[in-house]
Amino acid sequence: MNTSQTDTTFTKEDGAILEEVMNIAFGKASSELATVVDLRILLNAPKVEFLQADDLLRWIKQDTADNDTLNMIEQNFWGKYTGSAFLAFPTSASKGLVSLFEDDDLPPMDEENPLLVKENLLEIGNILIGACVSKVAELLDDEVTFSPPRLIPRMVVDNLANEARLDPDKVAILIKTVFHIQDKDIKGFLFLVAGEESMAWLKTALQNFMAKF
Amino acid sequence: MPKKLLIVDDSPVSRAIIKKCLPEGHDFELFEAEDGQQGLEKFKEVKPDATLLDLTMPVMDGFEALEEIKKVDSGAQVIVLTADIQPKAYETVMGLGAAMVVPKPPSSESIADGLSKIGLI
Ligand SMILES: [Mg+2]
């Protein structure tokens, strides 16, 4: 046993605080996207689980149809809390996502155009991930910088660990928020993965957040 | 007589934050519910002077709960406390008769504002 080890075990209470922080952050993120696309985003209460990155696969499978692949947008962020954020949509939902950005004054977009699909997915990822992670950082008195978003197209769910370059030994904080885009029947989810080095900081930051009230 | 205040929110953390933000020097009798369905039942049971209502909740969300509460008592004073700050959510709850919307996280000031706007403090 390493005696200098900090206690990074997350209690139920820590998880509940993080859920509320994520709830606020995702509310902010969906409001930014809703303003851009002029549609209502229906939110579910976020669920927080602390798992090995390995278990992410099993967890994501609960929310995806058996044969569907995922379009995932990944963005890394650095601060006192450092990690990666992923936004995932079933590949079959991509067409509907492209039409979100359609402008009535312009000719209809070619929903099969892979470049256009890519651009639109990256933009949605950038808005949702950026607003969500920035808000978490703001609430926890952190500041983060972001990498540009990266698209992992048509990912077979079983290849997740490889494609998302997850270290299977890392303890990850998985925050899953499922959301629906009204009138479009599009369901997606957002999750964050952070390494153990961020855990001690996060635990303290969550306690500090509660102490502010 | 203490004022009866009903807090409806699925997050125990959020309910704790709201309670910490209640203005001092006032006498409140607090009631809590964990979802819209429970909130509606508590509302009928205790007839609170004011309800602080969350929107994103399981079982019955705050939109439906607000609609049902207003059916029970059209004069019910409901302050919506929510992380869902989309303009359409705001329009919907104001249309359903909410007294005001307070964004999360609340502060002592924003809660006091809400309670004074409905004349409770
Ligand atoms: Mg809620």
Describe this structure as you would to a colleague:
- The complex is a heterodimer of chains A (213) and B (121).
- Chain A has 213 residues and is of the alpha+beta class.
- Chain A has one domain: CheC-like (Chemotaxis protein chec).
- Chain A contains six helices and eight strands; from the N terminus they run H-E-E-H-E-E-H-H-E-E-H-E-E-H.
- In chain A, strands 1, 2, 3, 4, 5, 6, 7 and 8 form an eight-stranded antiparallel β-sheet that branches.
- With 121 residues, chain B is an alpha/beta fold.
- Chain B has a single domain (3-117), classed as Response regulator (Rossmann fold), CATH 3.40.50.2300.
- In chain B, strands 2-1-3-4-5 form a five-stranded parallel β-sheet, with helices on both faces.
- In chain B, strand 4 (78-82), helix 4 and strand 5 (100-103) form a beta-alpha-beta unit.
- The complex binds magnesium ion.
- Magnesium ion binds at residues 9-11, 54, 56-57 of chain B.
Return Rg of chain B in Å. Answer: 13 Å
Q: What portion of the residues of chain A fall into strands of 2 or more residues?
A: 25-35%
Structural class of chain A: alpha+beta
By CATH, the architecture of chain B is named 3-Layer(aba) Sandwich
- Strands side by side in the biggest sheet of chain B: 2-1-3-4-5
Largest sheet of chain A: 8 strands, antiparallel
Distance between the termini of chain A: 37 Å
- What is the highest CATH level, the class of chain B? Alpha Beta
Measured between the Cα atoms of the first and last residue of chain B, the distance is 13 Å
Give the tally of β-strands of chain B.
5
CATH-derived architecture of chain A: 3-Layer(aba) Sandwich
Strand content of chain B: 15-25%
Q: What is the number of helical segments of chain B per DSSP (H or I, 4+ residues)?
A: 5
- Our count of domains of chain A comes out at 1
- Main beta sheet of chain B, described? 5 strands, parallel
